[in-house]
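Dear colleagues,

As part of the handover before I leave the project, I'm documenting each prediction I ran so the next person doesn't have to rerun anything. This entry is a single chain, and its sequence is reproduced below.
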Amino acid sequence: MSGHQITEETRLDVREISPRERHPLIFQTFDDLKPGSAFVLVNDHDPKPLRYQLAAEREGTFEWDYLESGPETWQVRIAKTKAS
């Protein structure tokens, strides 16, 4: 995804991506965001562990808003509030 402009409408659906590749892709997508931009993460389970990892590694740089909370699909809007 590097090199692409990330926009408010960007949706990152990781349901078909192997679990070990998900977090690196999500972090790269987040790191590519400009402050004030966001993307929507689509997942097949509650990505709560990702939220904890983001809080630990990018503390104070993001907002996390659930748009859909299961039971089969979760959608979370992840916004970058300032440069990490």
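DSSP finds two helices and four strands in the chain. The chain has one domain: 11-80.

All the best with the project,
I.
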